[in-house]
Amino acid sequence: MKIDWLRKIIGGILLVSLLAIVCSQPIQKYLSIPQNVTLFEGESISFQKAAPVSASLNSQNSSISLNQEKKEVTVKADKPGNSEVVMELAGIPVKKVDVHVLKDFKVIPGGQSIGVKLNTVGVLVVGHHQVNTSEGKKSPGEIAGIKVGDIITEINGKKIEKMTDVSPFVQSAGESGKALNVMISRENGKFSTKLIPLKDKEENAYKLGIYIRDSAAGIGTMTFYDPQSKKYGALGHVISDMDTKKPIVVEDGQIVRSTVTSIEKGSNGNPGEKLAHFSADREIIGNIQRNSPFGIFGKLNSEMKNGIMDKALPIALSHQVKEGPAQILTVVDEDRVEMFDIEIVSTIPQKFPATKGIVIKVTDPKLLKKTGGIVQGMSGSPIIQNGKLVGAVTHVFVNDPTSGYGVHIEWMLNEAGIDIYEKKKAS
User: Fold this and answer.
1) pTM for the predicted model, two decimal places
2) Nearest Cα to 338, choosing from 312, 362, 321?
3) With 60 as the cut, is the pLDDT of residue 18 above it?
4) What domains are defined for the chain?
5) Which of 139, 141, 148, 348 is deepest in the core (most CB within 10 A)?
6) Which sequence positions are flagged as catalytic?
């Protein structure tokens, strides 16, 4: 019994000692240091540390340098590559920090209002209608199993690119009584079906009983472009068809300059909207190669200037974005880009591409008076924080038009085909 009692006392002392060590300031500070850090050339990051903790480089040939003081250690990125910082407590290694240095990279921020025209892959089915035949009302499209959101890509082995490609097949098949062999693209794959046109007894014409569309148009905001490759990103979110609510599968498309004519102010439960028209010259300033959850992407034909911030800016990775003051670039009057104050309310340091990584709130009195906050057409407006491009406006909160979501610029660059991690992978 006496031995058991002694063991309990010793065990208690050891437990208290262990807790004291874990809760001590040196240990707590070293535990808060991240295991992985990514920096661009010329950037630096500082870690708070207690006096007994020291830092050293694990290699003499390093891409970083250290500046060590009593209460913090500063890591400076000197050149692209991978390095390792070792944190020691009383000469014992307690933590290793992997530091990845990326090549210096900058892009030109946007803010310009742009007109967007998308051409779909094939023709998009946006609805059904009944054909008034001599035997009653029927929809050949529904009979053939064609659904809203389907894309017709081929008829009788011929590629379909626009609505006018469909009509000759309809009349020919109707007169001959032969079914059309239709190739359909749907979210879960492709399939073929037989489609028999029916004659409308009132209009004396053959019809398919479906509504189709081959293009879509709208406005948005330019986010950035790379001065080297001329690749750009805009909108910050996918363009969906207004009828089917499904993402538009893009064959190609164009962007043009647009002019904001007026603003429908947003209010609780009613998002506002920029009203704009395509510029009179309809000059195509770039193409559209991709429509993704992160926006539209392609190449510009020439440089685009916003008039207030035309020099290339560094970018911030998702883990570098902080809560606090920031600005957005956008157009609320004609084609003039202006800068407005916002607050980054929260930000998620995402490790993998994902939308809605930033929550923002408009604080600028001028913008609040003009728009009520975030309105449709403002999507893609670049978010600037501490002289860096950090993301783009994407969605407004329906019940609070002063607030909304943003997407991290890191993921938009990835979707644009700009590999900022190239040097990291090569090393």
Assistant:
1) 0.82
2) 362
3) no
4) 2-104 (2.60.40.1080), 107-115+218-422 (2.40.10.120), 130-208 (2.30.42.10)
5) 141
6) 237, 364, 379
Mean pLDDT of 130-149: 91
pLDDT in tens, 116-125: 998 888 899 9
pLDDT of residue 257: 92
Rounded to 5°, the CA angle 169-172-174 comes to 105
DSSP code string of 205-225: EEE-SEEEEEEEEEEEEEEEE
Q: Which residues pair with 375 in a beta bridge?
A: 272
What is the average per-residue pLDDT within 330-341?
A: 96
d(CA 382, CA 331) in angstroms, rounded, equals 11
CA distance 209 to 232: 40
Q: Which residue has the tokens 């923002």?
A: 360
The type of residue at 120 is T
- Token pair, residue 39, equals 């920096």
Rounded CA-CA distance 258/335 in Å is: 7
Helix/strand/coil (H, E, C) string of 134-197? CCEEECHHHHCCCCCCCEEEEECCEECCCHHHCHHHHHHHHHHCCCEEEEEEECCEEEEEEECC
The encoded tokens of residue 285 equal 């300033």
Q: Which residues contact 19 (CB under 8 A, 6 or more apart)?
A: none
Exposure string for 133-155, b = 16+ CB within 10 A, e = fewer: beeeeebbbeebebebbbbbbbb
For 311-341, give the DSSP string: S-EEB--GGG--SEEEEEEEEEEBTEEEEEE
Query: DSSP string spanning 74-106?
Result: EEEE-SSEEEEEEEEETTEEEEEEEEEEEPP-E
Nearest to 50 by CA among 25, 87, 24, 73: 25
